[in-house]
Amino acid sequence: MPTNADFFQFSQxxxxxxxxxxxxxxxxxxxxxxxxxxxxxxxxxxxxxxVGLFGLGVVPFTRTVIPGAVRYSTIYDSGADRVVxxxxxxxxxxxxxxxxxxxxxxxxxxxxLSRGDDKLTIRARTILHPQPGISQPLYxxxxxxxxxxxxxxxxxxxxxPENFAQLPKSxxxxxR
Length: 176
What we know:
The relative contact order is 0.11. This protein is an alpha+beta fold. The chain is built from five helices and five strands. The chain folds into two domains: 4-58; 73-175, no CATH class.
C-alpha cells in the first residue's frame, strides 16, 4: 500500500507532467494546431490529478492497531464531536478499553467541527435481543479525546459495568 511519502512523489511527477502539457497546449495555440483544445482538457485533467495526489500525501490514512482491540463498525458519525461504534456482545472490559483507544486514534481528523465542545466523544454499544423481534441498544462505554491534538494523552475512558452485567450469561463468565 502506498504511503504518504509515495503520494507526495506521485504528485511531484504529476505536477511536472501538468507543466509540460501546459507548455505544449500553449505552443498549440501559438501554432494553431488542431488538437489544441484536447491538450487544454488533458492539462486540466492532470491538474485535478495533481491536486488529488497532493491531498492524499497530506492526509494520513494509516490505521492504528492497539493490541487487544476487537473489530468494530462505525454506525453514526456527526462529522463533528459525536461518534457511535458497535462492538460484539462477547466483548470484555479490557477489550472494550483497547477498542475505544483504537477508535479514538482512527477516527481523529483535523477537519472535525467543534460545536461548543473541544472533545470528540466516541460511544461504544452493542445490540441485545431480549425477545424475538425486539432489539435493545446497550451502551458499554465511551471515550473523550481532543478534537485538535492528534496524540492526546489526556483521553477519558468511561466504562459502564452495570451494562456489562446485562450481557448474555456466556459473556458474564468471561468477565470473572
